[in-house]
Structure formats: structure tokens, C-alpha cells
Design goal:
heterodimer; A: 229 residues; 12 helices; globular; B: 107 residues; mainly alpha; 2 domains; 4 helices
């Protein structure tokens, strides 16, 4: 069970991020008067922050199923990027592989790629616990928020900064691993361009252009980006 | 809208979300050990993290100069503390704490 304990330690920042965020979703969902059980179901089977918030809007608007399907695909297209860079880390077969893929959220991806797994531990079991714990926090938040509903005015002023801080910290951890400015500068410039072109589609634009440009640079074997660190 | 319809909407979203997460694993399964894919997989995460940091920061309320200042202070404290101690939880605690303190003071 030392994998579980290690994964719990690593997952704690996500607890503080997902609980308030999941509760925010739950409270919003409760405004539809659909009961708290369906909010839990959403957390269990969809398990995607931004898409679930969008779901509330789609449900309120009475969107058709094809509309729901296409908008969810577009909203979550960024996950394609995440799969690309954990291909080698995840198990190649089995039920665990598919659960890990199912649970590949922004935050789980960030932890899997940034935090080293201690040598003595089973890497795949560690990822399994990490993914399951993160989802448990999320589901708990969704359920609590919807259960407390409008009675609980969500006023956690500033706690949502936790996820920004988490990404900042993980960027520093990534930096310690590669120690190269060039790839980071490329990503920063592409982000600024994406923000300038269409701020409301920022994430998908910035990530897809990052993948294309990095793929191109890696294929060309440019020395400045490919040099061993 | 009844519970059945809502469940259908949620199931549709679940399938679409899973598709976006599973596609690379199905489409590129044989490529995982290719050197170019490995190099790609090593360089991509830090670049994604830059994007996520910018995404996170621009997602915060930045409508007042004091709110912008709070974000700047929060990020600087996070970076400083993490550079000093390299303890993830401590960095998050003090970084978020300093941000919340700035917001509460409402400069």
C-alpha cells in the first residue's frame, strides 16, 4: 500500500483544487433542480471540469445530443495532447490502462508528467491510485456542492488560485528536468498568439499549435531544441 | 427536462470526453518507443505547463489593478517559496494564502 500513501501525498494539492471547483459545479448544477445524484453521476462518468460546467449551460438550453457531442469533443480536444506525451508511461494493456486514460485530466496529467515516481514503487499502481484519488476528490466536490445546493453560497474567495499555483510549481519541477529555455519560450509565444487571436478558444489553440510546432522541430532534429540536457 | 434526458446528455458527454482522451493511445499505440516520439513526449509536458500557467492566470479575475497585483504577488510568493524549499504543499499553501490575503485586504 505504499503506492497508495505516496500517491495520496502527491495528490493533496489536487484535493484543495478539486473540492472547491467540484462544489462550484455542484452548486451550479443544483440550480437546474435535478437532484444531487445526477451531479455525482456526472463526476463519475464524465469527469471533466470545463465540460461539466458547459453541461449545465447545455442542459439549461435544452441542447440536442449531437450538439452536446460536438461541443464536448471541441471542449476536450486538448486531451489529445496529453495522451501523446504519456503513451510510454502508461501500461500498454489491461483494465488499468483504460481507467488511467479515462481519468487523464489537466491536473492528473500535470502530476504524472512532473512528479517522479520513487524507484521502489510500482509505477503503474502509483498512477492508478493517483488517478483514482483525484477523481474521488472531484466526485466528492460535485456531490457536496449539489447536495448543499443554493443553501450554500459558494464564497471561497481566492481558493481557486490553488490550481494556478499548482501549475506554476509543476512548471518549476519540469524546468528542473529539462533546463532549456527554448521550448518554454516557444510555448509562451504561441500562447500569446493564441490569446490574441481568440481568447475564448485559448486552450485548444495554444495546445494544438504547440504540438504542431514541437512536432515539426523534433522531426527536423533542430539542434537548439533537441540537444540532450 | 426529466432525469432520463439528463442522463442521456451526461452519457453523450462521457463518450465524447473518453474519445478525446483515448484516441492517441489507439491511433499511436505502436509508436510509444520510437525515439522521436519519446523526445516529443519529454519536451511537450513543460511546454504544456507554460500554456496551463498562462491559462490559469488569465482565468483569474483581473478586472481591477488590485486583483492583478494579487495574482502577481501570489505567483511570486509561490515561485520564491518553491525555489527555496521545493516542498510542493508548502509552496501552494503560502502562494494561495498570500493571494487570498491580498484579495481579502482588497487593495
Amino acid at each position: 500500500m505504499s503506492e497508495a500513501r505516496a500517491a495520496f501525498r502527491v495528490s493533496l494539492p489536487v484535493l484543495f483544487g478539486y473540492l472547491p471547483l467540484g462544489m462550484a459545479f455542484g452548486v451550479l448544477f443544483a440550480s437546474l433542480d435535478l437532484g444531487w445524484v445526477l451531479a455525482v453521476v456526472a463526476g463519475v462518468i464524465v469527469y471533466a471540469g470545463a465540460a461539466q460546467f458547459m453541461a449545465v449551460g447545455l442542459l439549461a438550453a435544452g441542447a440536442s445530443l449531437p450538439d452536446v457531442f460536438v461541443s464536448t469533443l471541441l471542449m476536450n480536444a486538448r486531451h489529445l495532447v496529453y495522451g501523446l506525451s504519456v503513451l510510454g508511461r502508461y501500461p500498454q494493456s489491461g483494465a488499468l490502462k483504460w481507467y488511467l486514460i479515462f481519468g487523464l485530466t489537466d491536473e492528473t496529467y500535470s502530476l504524472v508528467t512532473s512528479r517522479p515516481v520513487p524507484e521502489s514503487l510500482n509505477r503503474h499502481a502509483f498512477y492508478g491510485w493517483l488517478t483514482a484519488l483525484n477523481q474521488a476528490y472531484w466526485v466528492l466536490g460535485c456531490g457536496l456542492g449539489a447536495f448543499l445546493g443554493s443553501a450554500f453560497a459558494i464564497k471561497v474567495s481566492g481558493l481557486e488560485f490553488t490550481l494556478v499555483a499548482l501549475f506554476v510549481v509543476l512548471l518549476m519541477e519540469q524546468w528542473a528536468q529539462i533546463r532549456r529555455f527554448e521550448p518554454l519560450m516557444v510555448a509562451a509565444v504561441l500562447s500569446l498568439i493564441a490569446f490574441w487571436v481568440a481568447a475564448d478558444q485559448f486552450l485548444i489553440l495554444a495546445l494544438s499549435s504547440t504540438v504542431v510546432v514541437l512536432g515539426w522541430l523534433v522531426r527536423r532534429e533542430d539542434r537548439w531544441i533537441n540537444a540532450k540536457s | 427536462m426529466d432525469q432520463r434526458q439528463v442522463l442521456m446528455v451526461l452519457l453523450t458527454m462521457a463518450v465524447a470526453t473518453f474519445l478525446t482522451r483515448a484516441l492517441p493511445f489507439v491511433a499511436l499505440a505502436g509508436l510509444a518507443t520510437h525515439p522521436l516520439v519519446q523526445r516529443f513526449g519529454r519536451l511537450l509536458p513543460p511546454m504544456v505547463m507554460v500554456v496551463l500557467v498562462i491559462y490559469g492566470i488569465t482565468g483569474m479575475p483581473l478586472d481591477r489593478p488590485s486583483a492583478v497585483l494579487a495574482v502577481i504577488i501570489g505567483v511570486l510568493v509561490t515561485v520564491g517559496i518553491h525555489g527555496l524549499f521545493r516542498q510542493v504543499l508548502l509552496s501552494l499553501l503560502l502562494g494561495t494564502g498570500s493571494y487570498m490575503a491580498c484579495i481579502a485586504l482588497g487593495w
